[in-house]
Amino acid sequence: MAWTTPQTVVADSTELTAALWNEQVRDNTDYLKTVSDQGHRILTTAQRDALTGVTAGTMIYNSTLGQSQSYDGSNWVGVSGLVPVIATGYTTPRISIPAGSTVVDIDGAFTSAYDNYRIVLENFQQSAAFAFQWQFRTASGPVTAGNYSYAYYTLTYTGGAATSVASGTTQVDLYGSNTGAGSMRVIDIMRPNINEPYVFAYQTGVNHHSGSTVRMLNGMFGYSGTIQATGFRLWPGSGTWSGTLTIYGYSKV
To answer: Which residues are CB-contacts of 65 (< 8 A; sequence separation ≥ 6)?
Structure first.
């Protein structure tokens, strides 16, 4: 509905014309489109980062990440739970690794915005039955010093058991040989960007080999040197790989 004749607002004697009224209605409608059901402003990451004079406690809904976020005075952090993280050079938290890939470097994944991080590898597959490997990365590149250690317990679908242990190596073996589609990993990394003398991680997942062989695994790995990791490197011991990975941050206090 629109005014068709000039109206007068008695409070300040301002004449409210039809054009002025309709402009105000449009402004209010546009504003409501940018507000969530919880009353938070809906902004993209780019719009959020362009804000100035933000005070601690300000809340928004980040439409790029699909998360409610709060400003803590220094960083925008997720209100609760896992918060998707966009690595350097990517536009979404979910990264597709195309078939035929070899070494994949992910930078800008770990920052001071969060204490801990989770990496989810989905439907990853290798062209050959060799170890699937990991290294941390810093601003200087991959960390190749022989300070990695890891240990895993695996269980095959037939009920057999095996243990794999190694230490003092220049990379982590994520226990690969995933020549069948559908393998997955969930890797939780504790405080990789804090520059402390030890970085610890825990992983769980399922390996799908060729045919019907499926292995469940639980394991841990770490780096016994002081590093301030900003990302990671993934690659197969031989051949190529593909899959999808997603990065999350959590537990910033």
So the answer is: 45, 83, 84, 86, 93
> Could you state, in order of their start, the residue ranges of all structural domains in the chain?
81-250
- The tens digit of pLDDT for each residue in 116-148 reads 999 999 888 888 877 789 999 999 999 999 899
* Structure tokens belonging to residue 107: 């930078």
15 by Cβ neighbours in 10 Å (0-12 / 13-18 / 19+) ranks as: exposed
Please identify which residue in the block is written with the tokens 């393998």: 183
Say if residue 203's pLDDT is above 60: yes
CATH class of 81-250: mainly beta
pLDDT at position 219 over 70: yes
* Residue 113 DSSP class: T
Region of 57 please: left (phi>0), alpha (psi -120 to 50) or beta.
left
Euclidean distance between CA atoms 190 and 116, whole angstroms: 5
Rounded-to-integer distance, Cα 188 and Cα 104, Å = 19
